[in-house]
Design goal:
The protein has about 300 residues and is mostly helical. The chain folds into 2 domains: about 120 residues, no CATH class; about 160 residues, no CATH class. It has 9 helices and 8 strands. It has a two-stranded antiparallel ribbon. Strands 3-4 form a two-stranded antiparallel sheet. A two-stranded antiparallel ribbon has the order 5-6. Helix 3 packs across helix 4, helix 3 packs across helix 6 and helix 4 crosses helix 5. The two termini are about 45 Å apart.
Length: about 300
Amino acid sequence: IVEYALRRTKDQLVKLAEKAPEAGERPLRIENKIDIKRVFTAPLSLHRQLDLCCVCFKPNDINDFSPEWAHVKNPRHDPSWKIYEEGEADHLAEKALAEIGGYDGWRETPKISQRIVVEAKAPAKAAAKEPAYRKIGRFQVMGLLQAARYYLVKGDIEKAKSFGLNRAIFYAWAKRYARDRLVRITKKPRIEVAGTRIAKPMYEQVGNETAYLSPKGWFVIGGTEQSPDDYDRQIAKRIESAAISYKDAWEASIKYLSRFSRDVLLDQQRFYKEVYVPVRDRFHILVEKMMKDKKENA
């Protein structure tokens, strides 16, 4: 049946494949093939790294889909995927058998001489153009998303910049020295600003995350204050250097974070895994797509 469907829809699938986002030099490929390298995912099976599971939903719901549907604590799963009527595909199977032949794994069944493979044409290298937007560094993506996160939760744009840079520095340190473990501070650190030790360091709670403040009210880490100007130099200007308008990047980050619930924004680990990780290496693509959609809908 799969082979029959591929043959009947090949022309339409080729057009769809050519519209798919480019993934390096490997075009989108659709084929009827099963081997030991293929992985079967059962409904509600767990992701091997993230706190997500496989959920089923009807085709009509695809435009409303959100990654939150797959959260293991409260998955939005439509069990009607397994509802069927006995014999509902008999007529289709008979047509496929008549046109394609039987399953080529059966000994007495003639094997299909050539299976259909639907593949988008790879763009000619000579005609390939450099994308309008270049990849943004992970440090800048983290800083931008954390700033947008703080802004959506607290509503202070200047302090959001300080928080964004502060968290980007924290995660860069954690990756290098803590082997990707999120370090939770169990005692108040010694904070010095401009060589002066702060006896009673101030701090601010953002959900379940604690970040310390300088006497000026900006966030501080490693004895160094992160001001909005520092954010502009280390985050905003670096984004601009990737041929991306910071205004567009900020707008895209706010729109992207708006997809997630407040519970996700207030949870340190969920924000990292569910919000940051999926886009850390492709945020420039997200910005480009959102800006394109904005122009088309204008």
